[in-house]
Amino acid sequence: MTLELHAVAVAAKGAEPLFPPLTLVVRPGEVATVMGPSGIGKSTLLDAVAGHLTHGFSLSGSIRLDGTDLAPLPAEARRVGLMFQDAALFPHLSVGDNLAFGLARSVRGRAARRAAVEAALERAGLAGLHDRDPATLSGGQRSRAALMRTLLAEPRALLLDEPFSKLDAALRAEMRAFTFEHIRNRDIPALMVTHDPVDAEAANGPLIDLTQLEVRPCNT
Ligand SMILES: Nc1ncnc2c1ncn2[C@@H]1O[C@H](COP(=O)(O)OP(=O)(O)OP(=O)(O)O)[C@@H](O)[C@H]1O
């Protein structure tokens, strides 16, 4: 799965585009980093890829996933996963039921769904916590569960909007490594918005500064 942005720009009705046209290729397993000052349109760019553009913003250029133009597809048909800093587990569901909520519809039958959730909990280092109330988990455990919920939907690409910024330094490093490893294992492209140079340094894909729109290789 490759994510391709060609001359992508977003603009509010009657206004100038938020940033100059962006052209970018994110290959399978790669994390591309998008940086730029507050308000330049980083989250709006991710919304455009996810199919959630709101507030009168319109998109120009094209966004392709695996060669398919995403423009005509509604958000749910794009199968693009979104992880953001305030990603919360549903407080009224157990940890396992939170993960089951994300589970792709293609996994059918009670036993198969339970097995898929148990395997995901195990991979996230959360084995045995299926029936726990999310409020009783540590911050890192909650973050890992939220990521697994996103991944269980089998997204074809992942969008990360400052996903680690609420975590302390140690947890941040752990979640960053965990997330990037899953992106590589799933061989899906990811687009990460961050203000943190350490996140950018750890990413293996192109680095885009929306104020410069320079695309240069990072760690490759
Ligand atoms: N609900 C809204 N209604 C109108 N304009 C909005 C709305 N949300 C965002 N904007 C505007 O769209 C522009 C881009 O916002 P966006 O959130 O994409 O920026 P950002 O680069 O992600 O910022 P930050 O780093 O602070 O999250 C900003 O100028 C902002 O004021």
Output the keywords.
single chain, 220 residues, alpha/beta, Rossmann fold, six-stranded mixed sheet, four-stranded antiparallel sheet, 7 helices, globular, binds adenosine-5'-triphosphate
Summarize the structure.
With 220 residues, the protein is of the alpha/beta class.
Molecular structure report:
- Residues 3-220 form the ABC transporter domain.
- GO terms for molecular function: ATP binding; ATP hydrolysis activity.
- Keywords: ATP-binding, Nucleotide-binding, Transport.
- The protein has one domain: P-loop containing nucleotide triphosphate hydrolases (Rossmann fold, 3-Layer(aba) Sandwich).
- By secondary structure, the chain is an alpha/beta fold.
- It is globular.
- The strands form two sheets. It has a six-stranded mixed β-sheet, sandwiched between helices.
- The chain has helices at 42-50, 75-78, 95-102, 110-123, 139-152, 169-186, 197-202; strands at residues 3-12, 22-26, 31-35, 57-65, 68-69, 80-84, 157-161, 190-193, 207-209, 215-216.
- Strand 4 (57-65) and strand 5 (68-69) form a beta hairpin.
- The mean pLDDT is 90.
- It has seven helices and ten strands.
- Bound molecules: adenosine-5'-triphosphate (ATP).
- Adenosine-5'-triphosphate is lined by residues 18, 36, 38-44, 55.
C-alpha geometry:
globular
| Poorly predicted runs of 5 or more residues | none
Order of helices and strands: EEEHEEHEHHHEHEHEE
Computed Rg: 17 Å
Query: Do you know the CATH architecture?
Result: 3-Layer(aba) Sandwich
For the sheet with most strands, the description reads: 6 strands, mixed
Number of strands: 10
What's the helical proportion of residues?
25-40%
Our count of domains comes out at 1
Number of helices: 7
Keywords: ATP-binding, Nucleotide-binding, Transport
Protein name: ATP-binding cassette domain-containing protein
Organism: Antarcticimicrobium sediminis
GO molecular function: ATP binding; ATP hydrolysis activity
